[in-house]
Amino acid sequence: MVVAPILLSVLAFSHPEKPLAPLAPSHRLPIEELEVRAAVLSRGVGMVESFYRTRVEPVEHLLSPYHEDPDFVRQVALGLVREGERAGVDPRVLASVLLVENPWLDPVIESSQGAVGLMQVMPFHAGRWGCTSSDLEDVEGNLCHGARIFAAYLEQKGGDLDRALLAYNGCVRGTNTPDCHLYPAHVYSRAGRMAMRRWLSLY
């Protein structure tokens, strides 16, 4: 059962109407109250399992062939789900972009153009997107920047996925990166063009 690694993320997405009060070490509850607490706990575990199976696991499937540490893969998948939710972009789309930008899933790698981290964010973006961390080598901070930058380009380009991908790649007439016009095709190869368009339509 997948519970502990994703419990906090599920709680961040949910808002319980009436959280249970903590118990004092010596406090004894009547059986009725224990039954209520057990039912609430059972529902919480069910939410965690459902959240993982429907939201996190599909992203893990995309990432896992590229990294040998399943805990790190899960951390990245959770971050993509969280930031995708906040930015309004399906996390599988973000994962497909990430796998072209950084197929090694190396959080501290730097490109020849100076782009940093998992989603290869240019340093001039650091701290400009309302993320909790401006450290682009930080997993969560980098995913936050990457997701919000891509979402902004997608909106700016009127939902045109090809143009948003080219903008994210910084493809301007191919002056910085030769053959950068092929970037969308590389991203689509990770999951498929139609799949990515379908995912975007869900958000």
- Binned strand content: under 5%
Overall 3D form: elongated
Q: What's the level 1 CATH class?
A: Mainly Alpha
Main beta-sheet annotation: none
Q: Indicate how many domains the architecture comprises.
A: 1
Which sequence of SSEs, written as H and E, runs from N to C? HHHHHHHH
Q: How many strand elements?
A: 0
Total helical elements = 8
Computed over alpha carbons, the radius of gyration is 20 Å
Identify low-pLDDT runs. none
Percent helix: 55-70%
CATH architecture assignment name? Orthogonal Bundle
**Class by alpha and beta content:** mainly alpha
Search tags:
203 residues; mainly alpha; Lysozyme
Question: Explain this structure to me?
Answer:
With about 200 residues, the protein is mainly alpha-helical. The protein has one domain (about 5-10, about 30-200): Lysozyme. It has eight helices and no strands. The chain has helices spanning about 5-15, 30-65, 70-85, 90-100, 140-155, 160-170, 185-190, 195-200. Helix 2 (about 30-65) crosses helix 4. The radius of gyration is 20 Å and the shape is elongated. The two termini are about 30 Å apart. The model has no long low-confidence stretch (mean pLDDT about 85).
